[in-house]
Amino acid sequence: MSNEERSPLRQRRRVDTDATSDIEQVQEPEVFTSIIPFVADEGKDTIEQGSEHDEPDSDEETVCSICFEPWTTAGSHRVACLACGHLYGKKCIEKWIASAGKNAVCPQCKSKARKQDIRPLFVRNLKALDNTELERTQQTLEKTREELRKTELAHANALALLRTRESEIQKLNTRITLLKESLGRGEGSIVDANNEFDAAKRWDITLERNVEVNKDGGCRLLAYDGQRILVTSQPASQNRLFKGYGIRKICSVTLVPSKFHPLHEKPITDMAFNPEKYDQFLSVSTDKYVKITDMQRNVEVFKVLLDYPLTSAAWCTENSNQFYVGTSLGHISLYDLRKLDKEAVEKITQNEPTITSPVYGLAHVSKAKRSGLLALRLKQFSFYEFQEETKTQCLLSDDDLFNCLSYEPSTHSVLITTKPSSKHPNVRHFVYSPNEDGAPFSPSVTISGSSKMRFLSQSTMFLNPGGKLTVGSSLETANCVALWDCNGGKLSYTLPLRDGACDLLSFYSNNDLFLGAIGEQSLSVFKWHELT
Fold first, then answer.
1. Has this prediction a pTM greater than 0.70?
2. I need a labelling partner for 476 at 20 to 30 A (CA). Which of 4, 59, 272, 523 fits?
């Protein structure tokens, strides 16, 4: 109400002291015109509203005295009053009364306050933040976000279905490629090859997730601590101050990678977790350093600098403080964590001065009757048997170049992989089984694999959920992982890959069996499912 509209009211409210008492004063009903208080001007018989020249309102007149935030004209913090007349934000005074219960009082005058006394005020001259448009915009934004979530969910479902279809198509293309190769080698008819694929199985394996590890590439190796951590070997990203090589931990439950942890200045050639003390992580590199890292604290606890680049390493399964190291010159030595110098506890190859080829793989064997060390070099596969004296037995010597060694401890079986050559154009996988008499291991089956090996990928051997010994290897001709049954060497599964496989690793997590395949940039994780 403007000043012109209120002037008749002021005239009718005046009290003329000189007038006679029989002049009746006109009484008007009280009208709430503004919450800005009227100020009595001394020396005048009228009450006038504070003018625009008065001092500006204090913070107490423009903000809620509970949260000290400006009042608003709409929304949950709109201005409201109690029966005593004091003003607050509506949501603030409601929370105040709810927290005090029956004993609630006004925060300012301490008069009794009840929730039903709260009255929202509809005012124009109140100095309050007008957030009506903001509230409307926020409601629209929330509605848009909900629609976006629904759209993203539908997109994710469609993408999952698309990937399933693409996987099925790639499996069929892989199957066609393998059938053509089988016929080209004269290994049987299409019917015989189809029988290998269509045989009834109780278990199947499918892609669980692809995890990006390093967009710059360079990933090479996998390791597992037996509980809940996968580790990948990779170079540092280009935007990092540290330009060497290190690892990235990945939780085997959530499959979420952690931060990069630097270890060596040059590429890591081998790494493994302590089979008993899971927090101890062994790594060797061409920078000539052997390092033990506490993975729980990310702290280096052991370091030795040797004379030659290192190519392989393995823990001793009989003593958790000892480990073996192989060098680029063919030397193999035993070291102990309790001795912090570079002197080896024992030099395994001290009686073999003529061997100069790098040691590409090591695996300690602990059996009731025989204990020793498996060692794979470029053209020789040997077994060092530990008795009163170390005895060396050459188990396999070939003109082809050996690539990797894999040992399956529960069955004491060994897998040896060779590179393609002019004499044997395909990768060959030799499976050795334990032998009680004579030689400790004897060949059981030979499997023909891919016709090329660009990544020099590491193969693996493990027991599938059905208890069958299985060989896993990268099949680069079809860009997939091939799984062979060691009982006869039949191809059982083909698993499509995103960017190839440099290393394979079988591991358990939450009682489920998984197979990890690390490419140069990402990790593909496959999960075994029981068929119903």
1. no
2. 272
